[in-house]
Amino acid sequence: MNMISSDPLVIGRVIGDVVDHFTPTVKITVSYNNKQVYNGHEFFLSSVTTKPQVQIHGGDMRSFFTLVMTDPDVPGPSDPYLREHLHWMVTDIPGTTDATFGNEVVEYEILRPNIGIHSRSEGGVMKTATTRVLFNSRSFAEENELGPLVAAVFFNAQRETAARRH
Amino acid sequence: MVMMASSSSTIQSVYPRVSGANFHVPLSPHSLVPIYNNSHSFSKLRNSIHLAAAPLPKASAGNGGLTDDGVSLGTMKLPLDNDLQRFASLLFQEIIYTDEPCLILLLCQQ
């Protein structure tokens, strides 16, 4: 019997295009200026210019997590030949805390994507340098021997004046 | 002799304005035909002028063909006075407009 998945991560092609199938085991809440992010929701670009608050509700203080924010639709969804673009990376986040307790190895940057190597490889979990352009979440997790994927959330950011000119 | 003199006298009396140089050429009523021929020659000359004028429109058309009203850019032709810088800017903006991030946050156990 064919089952149509109702998982927004499957519908949104996060599972498939970016990551393999996984079962979320940790709850996270992401918010911009106290506005929580839900899968598939839309935000204006102007409201996501500063880094979000990412709260990890699972685990304990002795477990650590790595947070990655990427855009798989670069330069556009019809032909994402620059997939993925790395916007943010924080490592060594203790469980039950938020991203501010971790080590920001790639600065948060949404509006002005910068090309080049922007990560520090000394210390922490990262073993190889990485770039923002043509980032690959699967490869990164494998190369740095990260554990399983425990949570994911995706949303769209659009411009206020996104109407096309004719 | 008398007959010769009589003929000469007769001619002079009939065409009094003919000069003596034409004395040896007997003029007859048929001499009107060359005048018609001359008219025909003038007609030919006018026709020639007309034919000479005919290439002018053709040359003008040729000049018109040389005056291109745009610059070919692949499948799009733009007028010469187009603001190419603005056009490029619009293309760039178009690319920007398509770049609306779909942001994914992934959390991995370490």
Automatic annotation (TrEMBL), chain A:
Broad class of where this protein is predominantly found: cytoplasm
Keyword Cytoplasm (UniProt): yes
Keywords: Cytoplasm
An annotated GO BP: vegetative to reproductive phase transition of meristem
Presence of the UniProt keyword Cytoplasm in the record: yes
Superkingdom to which the source organism belongs: Eukaryota
Listed InterPro entries: PEBP, PEBP-like_sf, PEBP_euk, Phosphatidylethanolamine-bd_CS
Subcellular localization(s) per the UniProt record: Cytoplasm
A GO CC term attached to the entry: nucleus
SUPFAM superfamilies associated with the record: PEBP-like
Pfam name, any one: PBP
Family: Belongs to the phosphatidylethanolamine-binding protein family.
Protein name, UniProt field: Uncharacterized protein
UniProt organism field: Glycine max (Soybean)
UniProtKB/TrEMBL annotation, chain B:
Superkingdom of the organism of origin: Eukaryota
Protein name: DUF7148 domain-containing protein
Domain spans labelled DUF7148: 68-93
Provenance organism: Glycine max
